């Protein structure tokens, strides 16, 4: 399929840095322990040459949603429940903008879907881990991605006016799937019977009113005359399930200040993260730094957004998103770490202590760390970690190492600070990956003996040297100073010469052995089915349904089932 | 067979007595329809005998039988024009193929949506007009109102017939919901916004039947072209009745104009308020309002739905036969497009412009109506010409709704709009004045002061005929 269109490719400048003062598409308002996040898409405010009609969205709209949810978690501990609603008449949200999808390159579409998936999962994470509850108040029809957004909320309230419906028009109208978790959430989360899901997903105009409740597609209905009071009552009821501090924490929020990044050609320098891209070699290097000075050992909140654990991971998040959207051809990321291991271990131990003491802010910082690491896991680029003398593979950084597709240790016994790895209790349950297991469990899936051998090192945060690391299986290969440079170079060159599609498929297969969760199923199905359909002529060929949507011609299908 | 569902009670040409499926559906629906009619039909006149025309068959002597009938006893029938032999799909991708006698599965949802949207307007207008009879300017006009109302009811039956016969259980549920939605009800509003505004004065009613029912005419004409033959035949028959509604509108506005001219001459003034008339400038303001509100009903200028309906052979252009290219896949339409502050011509794929094509036909038709009204002022020797405003003026739907335009279609600022709108559209005070004129006149043959008598009575009856037995 041809890669064309301004909204795809590397030319598109997507900024992930925003704040409520700059939002074009959402209104965030507060009322005590309730917040309202209202969608009001600026039709002309899209990232590309299309009009965002009927509250349809593109990546720019979703970046604001993501930002709003992060800010609700950090800046508004008083909020217990969020009402997600719309400000347009008759339509809550009509889903991803079709013309945007039609104009986008395949790679861009996939990145877009992946980010929206991560944002939807972020809503569910806020509910399950932080007790921030979400009510989807559908004041009009919720179609496609609009209903998928509602599905990510804890409860769904639908306007009962004989018109407003929830729908998945993707299959009948566009020849693609409701791929932002839609098909997975209706079965796994809402427990809609599978044959009813089939019926629902093939009727373009959707299901409304009583039947939507009977089929469990929504939880409640409200007539228009009682709308405002019903929304408030349902949101208040949800807020009673919240474990957040509520009004007691009013004013304690921590403002997520802008990240300061210096750009010099293809080098991006943050405070604790540097990203250097080599477009010719199609590689990137990310270096993560431990705290430069000692972090506070109590009252971390006083340091606000400058707290190392928050700042460093926000920067890593930004770097990964930048790589995904601006450098599609980069196929491999080399991770390095540096800095004071003792500062890092102390900072993380302090954080963990505060989490255990019930501090809401420390909890949010840890959950954020978890989400960013998941974003790295989910990146369609080879992850290579290099453990070299002077590096700082300790604590949460070591989780990256455990999950890398490949890792190499430079075992230089003559070095001043030989390479070591320090796993901490943080890796033993606090930072699960998408399958619900720790990276440690995932790495050693099915090998209880190997896990048992590592446990003492984890419990005591005991450094592991190169030779031990290979034996314990926490790295792939250990090489001496004579072999190391060449072997790493060869690996990188070989890796970047292989088919990027085959690599993505292979890596995603191998990263999550073992059990499936709704989360892995959502991403797995996006990668497998939706992406397959997106590249098939029946969707995106000249006569495909997605290509022809809104055009005078009608699609012609290749009817052979595959 | 159940007694209520019989050829005798429900005149039809669809073999109702042999159609078990339709009988079963109507058995349930018909009592609900009657109770809807009693609740939402003309208020206060259900037990009165009204001189109504009933269609009892589709041939020339059957489609217009006149008699005094109590409205709840009206025989709402189901009629389709007779099938055309070897009819072919007249447009779109299936052009030239035999028409469908059953709903093609592929187009089931689209067709149902089209039928439900059309069907919803029929009971809606009855609901909008339910209080009007209490201020009727004459028995003749009151009877016309009721005739329009029962025929809107029959049009509802026609759409319900299609839903019941061709769309299974879903169709039956949609038919039920047509009776559950209510014009202007905040919880269950009618689908289209225009049909949620009450019509509380007769000048508005006459404007509605002139302009809004004329939108209905063009919607029906485009559906009459449909490749789904039962829809096509149903709409063709409805058009014969719709013509009467427009006759009511067009001739009645003309009578208002005529009366205004008489009063102007009598009192040598164009300010008719002291004399209980509706002055011509106010008539023009009502035209400005109702014409543009009706333009909205054609939908967006550039529409992917319209393109899909045309491509699929579901909804065509009015009088499709007058065009050369019935596939219209490569055709284009040069359209004025609003981009920011400027208007420029853009070439739009013809299929995506089908709403605008239909609107063009409508605009031309409305111009011919105005020429008749202008003939009246000319005949009366009054120097006043009515004019249709630009189609950009006062729009709530489509691209022109995004900015403000004057009567000539020039873009103006919000401030200019606020300053001038009272000289273009009826003000609250003017609406109140029109309301103040609305007093019931029930003496046979007598007319309210603000309207001239019609040229002739209904069905060759005298003007003094007792059209409604009160």
End-to-end C-alpha gap of chain A? 19 Å
User: Low-confidence parts of chain A, pLDDT < 50 over ≥5 residues?
Assistant: 1-11
Number of domains of chain A: 2
Alpha-beta content class of chain A:
alpha/beta
Please provide the count of β strands of chain A: 23
Percent of residues in beta strands of chain B: 5-15%
Sequence of strands across the biggest β-sheet of chain A: 13-14-15-16-17-18-20-23
Poorly predicted ranges of chain B: none
Strand order of the largest sheet of chain B: 2-1-7
Which range does the strand content of chain A fall in? 15-25%
Distance between the termini of chain B: 36 Å
What multimeric state do the chains show? heterodimer
Mind telling me the C-alpha Rg of chain A? 24 Å
Per CATH, the class of the largest domain in chain A reads Alpha Beta
CATH architecture of chain B: Orthogonal Bundle
Determine the number of helices of chain A (DSSP H or I, runs of at least 4 residues). Answer: 21
Sheet of most strands of chain A: 8 strands, mixed
Shape of chain B: globular
By secondary-structure content and strand pairing, the structural class of chain B works out as mainly alpha
Order of helices and strands of chain B: HEEHHHHHHHEEHEEHHE
Average pLDDT, all residues of chain A: 93
């Amino acid at each position: 399929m041809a890669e064309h269109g301004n909204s795809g490719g590397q030319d598109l400048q997507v900024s992930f840095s925003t704040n409520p003062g700059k939002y074009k598409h959402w209104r965030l308002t507060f009322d005590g322990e309730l917040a309202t996040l209202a969608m009001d898409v600026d039709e002309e405010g899209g990232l590309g040459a299309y009009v965002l009609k009927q509250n349809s969205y593109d990546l720019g709209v979703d970046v604001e949603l993501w930002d709003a949810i992060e800010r609700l978690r950090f800046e508004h501990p008083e909020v217990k429940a969020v009402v997600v609603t719309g400000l347009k008449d008759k339509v809550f949200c009509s889903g991803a903008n079709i013309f945007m999808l039609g104009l986008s390159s395949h790679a861009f579409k996939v990145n877009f879907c992946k980010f929206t998936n991560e944002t939807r999962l972020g809503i569910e994470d806020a509910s399950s881990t932080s007790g921030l509850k979400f009510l989807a108040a559908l004041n009009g029809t919720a179609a496609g991605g609009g209903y998928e957004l509602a599905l990510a909320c804890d409860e769904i309230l639908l306007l009962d006016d004989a018109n407003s419906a929830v729908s998945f028009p993707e299959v009948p109208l566009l020849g693609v799937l409701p791929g932002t978790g839609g098909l997975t959430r209706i079965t796994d989360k809402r427990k809609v019977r599978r044959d009813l899901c089939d019926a629902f997903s093939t009727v373009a105009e959707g299901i409304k009113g009583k039947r939507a409740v009977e089929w469990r597609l929504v939880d409640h209905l409200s007539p228009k005359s009682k709308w405002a009071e019903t929304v408030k009552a349902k949101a208040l009821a949800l807020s009673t399930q919240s474990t957040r501090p509520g009004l007691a924490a009013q004013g304690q929020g921590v403002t997520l200040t802008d990240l300061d990044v210096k750009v010099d050609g293809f080098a991006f320098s943050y405070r604790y993260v540097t990203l250097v891209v080599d477009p010719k070699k199609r590689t990137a290097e990310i270096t993560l730094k431990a705290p430069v000075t000692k972090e506070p050992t109590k009252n971390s909140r006083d340091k606000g957004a400058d707290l190392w654990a928050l700042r460093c991971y926000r920067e890593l998040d930004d770097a990964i998103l930048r790589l995904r959207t601006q450098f599609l051809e980069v196929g491999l990321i080399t991770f390095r770490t540096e800095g004071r291991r003792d500062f890092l271990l102390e900072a993380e131990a302090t954080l963990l202590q505060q989490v255990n003491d019930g501090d809401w802010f420390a909890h949010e910082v840890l959950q954020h760390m978890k989400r960013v690491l998941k974003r790295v896991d989910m990146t369609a680029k080879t992850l290579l970690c290099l453990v070299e003398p002077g590096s700082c593979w300790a604590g949460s950084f070591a989780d990256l190492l455990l999950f890398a597709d490949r890792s190499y240790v430079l075992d230089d016994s003559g070095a001043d600070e030989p390479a070591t790895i320090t796993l901490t209790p943080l890796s033993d349950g606090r930072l699960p990956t998408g399958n619900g297991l720790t990276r440690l469990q995932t790495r050693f899936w099915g090998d209880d003996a190997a896990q048992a051998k590592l446990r003492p090192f984890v419990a005591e945060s005991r450094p592991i040297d190169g030779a031990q690391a290979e034996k314990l299986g926490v790295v792939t290969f250990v090489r001496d100073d004579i072999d190391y440079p060449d072997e790493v170079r060869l690996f990188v060159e070989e890796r970047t010469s292989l088919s990027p599609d085959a690599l993505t498929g292979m890596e995603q297969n191998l990263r999550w052995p073992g059990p499936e969760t709704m989360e892995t199923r959502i991403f797995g199905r996006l990668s497998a089915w939706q992406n397959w359909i997106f590249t098939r002529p029946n969707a995106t060929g000249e006569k495909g349904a997605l290509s022809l949507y809104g055009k005078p011609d009608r699609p012609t299908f290749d009817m052979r089932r595959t | 067979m159940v007694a209520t569902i019989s050829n005798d009670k429900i005149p039809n040409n669809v073999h109702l007595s042999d159609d078990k499926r339709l009988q079963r559906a109507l058995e349930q629906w018909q009592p609900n329809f009657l109770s809807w009619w009693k609740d939402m039909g003309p208020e206060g006149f259900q037990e009165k005998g009204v001189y109504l025309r009933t269609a009892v068959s589709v041939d020339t002597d059957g489609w217009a039988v006149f008699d005094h009938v109590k409205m709840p006893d009206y025989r709402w029938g189901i009629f389709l024009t007779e099938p055309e032999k070897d009819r072919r799909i007249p447009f779109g991708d299936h052009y030239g193929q035999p028409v469908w006698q059953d709903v093609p599965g592929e187009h089931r949802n689209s067709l149902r949506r089209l039928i439900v949207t059309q069907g919803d307007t029929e009971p809606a207008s009855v609901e909008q007009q339910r209080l009007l009879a209490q201020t009727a300017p004459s028995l003749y006009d009151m009877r016309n109102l009721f005739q329009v109302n029962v025929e809107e009811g029959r049009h509802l039956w026609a759409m319900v017939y299609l839903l019941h016969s061709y769309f299974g259980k879903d169709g039956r549920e949609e038919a039920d919901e047509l009776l559950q939605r209510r014009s202007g009800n905040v919880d269950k509003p009618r689908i289209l916004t225009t049909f949620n505004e009450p019509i509380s004065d007769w000048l508005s009613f006459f404007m509605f039947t002139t302009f809004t029912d004329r939108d209905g005419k063009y919607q029906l004409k485009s559906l009459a072209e449909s490749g789904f033959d039962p829809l096509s035949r149903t709409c063709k028959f409805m058009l014969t009745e719709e013509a009467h509604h427009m006759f009511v509108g067009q001739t009645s506005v003309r009578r208002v104009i005529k009366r205004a001219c008489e009063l102007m001459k009598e009192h040598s003034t164009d300010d008719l308020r002291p004399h209980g008339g509706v002055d011509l400038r106010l008539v023009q303001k009502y035209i400005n309002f109702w014409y543009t509100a009706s333009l909205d009903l054609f939908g967006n200028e550039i529409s992917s739905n319209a393109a899909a309906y045309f491509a699929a052979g579901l909804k065509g252009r009015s009088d499709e036969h007058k065009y050369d290219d019935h596939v219209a896949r490569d055709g284009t339409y040069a359209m004025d497009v609003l981009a920011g502050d400027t208007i420029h011509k853009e070439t739009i794929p013809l299929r995506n412009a089908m709403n605008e094509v239909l609107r063009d036909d409508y605009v031309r038709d409305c111009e011919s109506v105005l020429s008749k009204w202008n003939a009246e002022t000319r005949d009366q020797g009054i120097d006043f010409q009515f004019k249709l405003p630009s189609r950009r003026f006062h729009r709530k739907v489509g691209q022109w709704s995004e900015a403000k335009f004057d009567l000539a279609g020039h873009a103006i600022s919000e401030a200019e709009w606020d300053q001038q709108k009272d000289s273009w559209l009826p003000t609250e005070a003017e609406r109140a004045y029109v309301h103040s004129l609305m007093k019931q006149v029930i003496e046979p043959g007598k007319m309210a002061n603000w309207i001239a008598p019609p040229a002739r009575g209904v069905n060759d009856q005298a003007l003094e005929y007792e059209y409604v037995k009160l």
